[in-house]
Amino acid sequence: MVTDNHISVIEVYNLISDIPDPEIPVITIKDLGMLRKVDFADDNYVVTITPTYTACPAMKMIEDQIKERLHEHHIDNVKVNLTYTPAWTTDWLSEEAKQKMREYGIAPPTHSSCSKLFAVEEHIQCPQCKSKNSSVISKFGSTACKALYKCNDCKEVFDYFKCH
Amino acid sequence: MTKQEALYKYSIRLGDDALILGHRLSELCSRSPFIEEDLALTNISLDLIGRAQALLGFAAEIEGKGKDADFLAYRRPEIEYQNHLLNEQPNGDFAFTIARQFFVSAFEFLFYSELEKSKDANLAAIASKAIKEIKYHQQHAAEWVIRLGDGTEKSHAKMQHAIDELWMWTGELFEMDEVENLLIKEGIGVDLVPLKAAWYNQIQTILTEATLSMPEDGYMQTGGRKGVHTENLGHILSEMQYLQRAYPDATW
Question: What's the CATH number for A9-82?
Answer without folding.
Answer: 3.30.300.130
